[in-house]
């Protein structure tokens, strides 16, 4: 395609038609990969070529406009190139404006960050288009701060919108921020609230980052909002979007120690790295007398700065530990006791059984007195040790406390974690005669929501399915592992049933079905794990039945974390309860569940829920198949 | 800037029980292998080959009761060991023999390590805690005849003897005995007359270990408290406190002065071995390797100064071997 420059009047509409038709048929890549680089070069400095290009795009009929615009936005290498190619198309053409400001930003979310950069940069580069930029930002913020959007839209879309907001913010000039400062503030407050309310950590983090960015933009002098969250690639990428290369942009300072600003002018505050003076380790050599020279001086002392007093020793008896933890004022001893407690409990099971409930009570209420490293983990391990040493009374105590008044959410969740860890330990067969000290090797389970749970379950489901397939090979290729009795089987019921009992009875400080849906989510996940660990125990059928009823009651819960938990519960039931029992005792529940699962697979907004539901349906299919293939 | 303390040159593992006593025998000529004898709480004496770092022989002579003292009597084939079975065993290890040739029944259930002194070729004096409550008996070996029994006077209330050291000024003079007792005092005994020459209260707690430098007539003792006491012997054979040194952590189980009298090592209850200069008791190093109480320290008797080693045995079943300050 070659145009002759000069004073010739060319009609480009034919070319536009061709372009549009090609793009709408899906051949954007082929044609634009040739066209765009050429046009980029040509329009770089030549005004006439620019106008030709604009005319070209403007003449594309409306019905093909979207394809063309999309193709251009995706293909160009930068916002300035897009600007020179498209000109003020978005201002002049309604369809183009719709595509750029609404469709690409709010209705679609599959595009890469580069596309967003191009798009929003393009909007910001011209005075006429800047009004659109502001409008776009307002709409994005409206979506971002709407609680129903946060609850029901997929996390990927929310991430996309957050990125768009950050890029918009980076393009805004001071004057523009001034005009919409109030709106920014309002939407930020609302948006932060709904984001932090969510159970998924990714959503919470997105909310925090965007809120921080907005706050830093509207309050360049004065304290800025700062949240604590884990930095990872995603957050770094998001934060980097806020910093744009155009020279007049103010680089936001996220350091919270720069509070000395001049009030009038808005100086560009540069990021300062806090360099704390590196304190070198002090080197002492005691009693070095350089004055006297004697033959001892040829013996050069070594560095003895590490030579310190030995810490106080921890008590050796359980009852002493109890005394120290409840009454002692001596913080060194308290700290030593906390560190030594788990191994003491494991080494003295008989002594622990005498005082198990008391010890559990003390540990549940134990607050951090000194800044001990790993205090939470130490406490949790000690609690697990007490629970495994004397399961029934301690489980009774803990499950009753879970539903009692005046505990913090953290304590209730601790109870759940401890129950799961102990159940895991008990259900793992230990070879008789050997007391394995779990020690430092055992990682603490964090029942964290998010994609981890589904991956784990997939792995577990796969393993289970593999193990259930019949093998016809003869001979044992592996040495049989030493086996011991499954200690969980006698106590599984004690762990499980009290937890499931009172979930619908609200107390003044604790309402599982109401505000405390985060704890509900954790409870549901805990029940799923307990169910899974109860495989081969006597109570498993009763547990399965109760769990299916529980799931049925909660199946329409609005929180996606709770729903994921419910689906995990169903997986556990299907995997743990023997097939014969499933079909004999729980036929109606299974049928109802199956129809609900089908519903979830199709209609649930959360990707993880859909995946889990699909897995469950597959499991059910496998069970059915197994039954029909087993020769009766 | 001072260097960080050195790591052990090697660590001997395999005793299987707490190590209570160590003794080197490295003075032999090639092709004699330098060895280290160790006595453990499970009653075994291990003979460690210091070239291969492995156990060459294991001697079982104390009925699985703890061995708390091991000494050689001229060369590495003549061994003496003391255990909690109230016996002192004499061994002849030539040609790979592993049974005790002789034994002395001490009738003492304490922990006091015996002390050996060579008085003539083939004749040894051995001081050990005896049957009576505060008694020390001196025997001549190998004849096992009693030379004297040292009983403190009635009312002295010294308590059990905790540690002993036989010495003599030079080759021919009278042998003397320094004994540390439970009440914290160090007593100098004259053996021929069986009398106390001098007594000095060095500590408030029992004297756990002592060592003496006969050339400078200066000795050092450690106890379960935080103080090391250095005392000297003047011309009138009187003990006087020379100085005290405060430690970081309480409890010393063993003290050894290196044969060249330049440095000394202390084994501490705080798991650390400390090295001091002997002349002024200058703190030189803190060797922190063990994870439990260090029970014993011993210096080797290598002929070449640069090969000299220090061994420390601990409750954590390990023996650490260090090469420290070998250039002097």
UniProtKB/TrEMBL annotation, chain A:
GO molecular function: Hsp90 protein binding; telomeric DNA binding
Principal place of residence: cytoplasm
Highest rank taxon of the organism: Eukaryota
Any one of the GO BP annotations: 'de novo' cotranslational protein folding
Chain ranges of the Telomere length regulation protein conserved domain: 315-423
Annotated TELO2 ARM repeat domain residues: 128-224
Ranges of biased composition (kind: Acidic residues): 285-294
Record's keyword terms, sorted: Cytoplasm, Membrane, Nucleus
Places the protein is found: Cytoplasm; Membrane; Nucleus
GO cellular component annotations of the record: cytosol; membrane; nucleus
InterPro entries from the UniProt entry: ARM-type_fold, TEL2_C_sf, TEL2_Regulation, TELO2_ARM, Telomere_length_regulation_dom
Annotated region (Disordered), positions in chain: 269-294, 430-453
PANTHER family the record matches: TELOMERE LENGTH REGULATION PROTEIN TEL2 FAMILY MEMBER, TELOMERE LENGTH REGULATION PROTEIN TEL2 HOMOLOG
Family label: Belongs to the TEL2 family.
Entry protein name: Telomere length regulation protein TEL2 homolog
Organism expressing this protein natively: Psophia crepitans
TrEMBL record, chain B:
Database matches in SMART domains: WD40
UniProt keyword terms in alphabetical order: Repeat, WD repeat
Residue spans of the WD repeats: 200-241, 287-328
SUPFAM superfamilies, per the entry: WD40 repeat-like
Keyword hit for Cytoplasm: no
Pfam families membership: WD40
Top-rank lineage group of the source organism: Eukaryota
PANTHER family xref list: GUANINE NUCLEOTIDE-BINDING PROTEIN SUBUNIT BETA-LIKE PROTEIN 1, TRANSDUCIN BETA-LIKE 3
The protein's name in its UniProt record: GNB1L protein
Organism field: Psophia crepitans (common trumpeter)
Taxonomic lineage from the root: Eukaryota, Metazoa, Chordata, Craniata, Vertebrata
The encoding gene: Gnb1l
């Amino acid at each position: 395609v070659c145009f002759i420059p000069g004073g010739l009047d060319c009609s480009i509409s034919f070319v536009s038609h061709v372009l549009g038709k090609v793009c709408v048929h899906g051949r954007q890549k082929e044609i634009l990969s040739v066209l765009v680089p050429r046009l980029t070069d040509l329009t770089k400095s030549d005004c006439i070529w620019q106008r030709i290009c604009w005319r070209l795009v403007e003449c594309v009929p409306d019905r093909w406009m979207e394809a063309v615009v999309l193709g251009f936005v995706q293909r160009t290498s930068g916002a300035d190139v897009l600007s020179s190619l498209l000109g003020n198309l978005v201002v002049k053409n309604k369809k183009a404006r719709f595509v750029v400001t609404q469709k690409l930003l709010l209705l679609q979310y599959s595009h890469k960050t580069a596309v967003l950069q191009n798009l929003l940069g393009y909007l910001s580069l011209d005075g006429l288009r800047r009004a659109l930029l502001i409008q776009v930002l307002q709409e994005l913020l409206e979506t971002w701060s709407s609680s129903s959007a946060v609850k029901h839209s997929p996390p990927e879309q929310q991430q996309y919108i957050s990125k768009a907001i950050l890029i918009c913010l980076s393009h805004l000039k001071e004057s523009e921020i001034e005009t919409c400062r109030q709106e920014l503030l309002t939407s930020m407050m609302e948006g932060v609230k709904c984001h932090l309310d969510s159970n998924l950590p990714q959503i919470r983090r997105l909310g925090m980052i965007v809120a921080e960015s907005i706050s830093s933009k509207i309050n360049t002098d004065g304290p800025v909002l700062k949240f604590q969250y884990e930095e990872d690639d995603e957050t770094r990428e998001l934060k980097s979007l806020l910093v744009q290369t155009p020279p007049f942009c103010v680089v936001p300072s996220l350091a919270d120690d720069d509070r000395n600003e001049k009030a009038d002018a808005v100086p560009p505050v540069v990021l300062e790295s806090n360099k704390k003076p590196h304190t070198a380790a002090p080197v002492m050599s005691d009693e070095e007398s350089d004055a006297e020279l004697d033959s001892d001086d040829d013996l050069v002392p070594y560095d003895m700065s590490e030579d310190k007093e030995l810490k106080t020793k921890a008590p050796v008896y359980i009852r002493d530990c109890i005394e120290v933890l409840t009454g002692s004022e001596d913080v060194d001893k308290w700290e030593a006791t906390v560190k030594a407690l788990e191994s003491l409990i494991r080494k003295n099971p008989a002594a622990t059984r005498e005082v198990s409930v008391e010890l559990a009570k003390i540990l549940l209420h134990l607050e951090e007195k000194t800044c001990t490293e790993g205090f939470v983990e130490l406490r949790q391990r000690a609690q697990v040790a007490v629970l495994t040493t004397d399961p029934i009374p301690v489980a009774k105590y803990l499950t009753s406390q879970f539903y009692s008044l005046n505990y913090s959410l953290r304590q209730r969740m601790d109870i759940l974690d401890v129950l799961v860890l102990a159940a895991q330990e008990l259900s793992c067969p230990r070879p008789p005669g050997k007391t394995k000290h779990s020690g430092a090797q055992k990682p603490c389970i964090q029942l964290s929501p998010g994609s981890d749970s589904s991956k784990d379950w997939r792995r577990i489901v796969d393993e289970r399915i593999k193990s259930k397939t019949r093998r016809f090979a003869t001979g044992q290729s592996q040495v049989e592992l030493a086996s011991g009795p499954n200690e969980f089987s006698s106590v599984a019921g004690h762990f499980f049933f009290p937890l499931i009992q009172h979930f619908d009875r609200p107390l003044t400080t604790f309402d599982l079905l109401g505000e405390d849906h985060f704890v509900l989510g954790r409870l549901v996940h805990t029940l799923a794990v307990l169910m899974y660990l109860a495989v081969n125990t006597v109570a498993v059928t009763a547990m399965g039945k109760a769990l299916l009823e529980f799931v049925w009651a909660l199946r329409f819960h609005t929180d996606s974390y709770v729903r994921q938990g419910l689906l995990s519960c169903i997986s556990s039931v299907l995997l743990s309860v023997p097939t014969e029992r499933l079909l004999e005792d729980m036929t109606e529940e299974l049928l109802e569940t199956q129809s609900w699962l089908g519903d979830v697979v199709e209609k649930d907004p959360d990707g993880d829920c859909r995946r889990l539901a699909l897995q469950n349906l597959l499991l059910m299919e496998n069970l059915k198949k197994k039954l029909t293939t087993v020769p009766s | 800037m001072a260097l960080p303390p050195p790591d052990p040159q090697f660590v001997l593992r395999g005793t299987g029980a707490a190590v209570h006593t160590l003794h080197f025998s490295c003075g032999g000529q090639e092709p004699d292998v330098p060895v280290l004898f160790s006595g453990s709480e499970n009653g075994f004496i291990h003979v460690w080959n210091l070239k291969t770092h492995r156990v060459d022989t294991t001697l079982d002579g104390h009925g699985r009761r703890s061995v708390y003292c091991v000494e050689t009597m001229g060369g590495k084939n003549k061994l003496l060991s003391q255990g909690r079975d109230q016996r002192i065993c004499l061994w002849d290890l030539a040609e790979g023999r592993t049974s005790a040739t002789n034994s002395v029944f001490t009738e003492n259930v304490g922990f006091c390590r015996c002390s050996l002194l060579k008085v003539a070729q083939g004749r040894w004096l051995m001081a050990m805690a005896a049957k009576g409550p505060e008694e020390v008996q001196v025997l001549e070996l190998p004849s096992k005849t009693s030379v004297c029994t040292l009983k403190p006077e009635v009312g002295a209330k010294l308590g059990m003897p905790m540690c002993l050291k036989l010495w003599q000024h030079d080759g021919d003079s009278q042998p003397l005995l320094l004994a540390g007792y439970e009440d914290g005092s160090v007593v100098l005994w004259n053996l021929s007359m069986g009398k106390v020459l001098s007594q000095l209260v060095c500590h408030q707690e029992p004297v756990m270990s002592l060592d003496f430098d006969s050339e400078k007539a200066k000795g050092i003792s450690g106890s379960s408290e935080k103080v090391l006491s250095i005392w000297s012997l003047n011309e009138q054979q009187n003990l006087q406190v020379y100085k005290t040194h405060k430690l970081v952590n309480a409890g010393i189980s063993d003290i050894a002065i290196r044969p060249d009298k330049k440095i000394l090592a202390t084994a501490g209850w705080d798991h650390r071995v400390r090295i001091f200069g002997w002349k002024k008791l200058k703190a030189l190093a803190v060797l922190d390797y063990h994870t439990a109480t260090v029970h014993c320290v011993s210096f080797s008797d290598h002929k070449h100064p640069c090969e000299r080693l220090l061994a420390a045995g601990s409750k954590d079943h390990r023996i650490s071997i260090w090469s420290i300050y070998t250039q002097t």
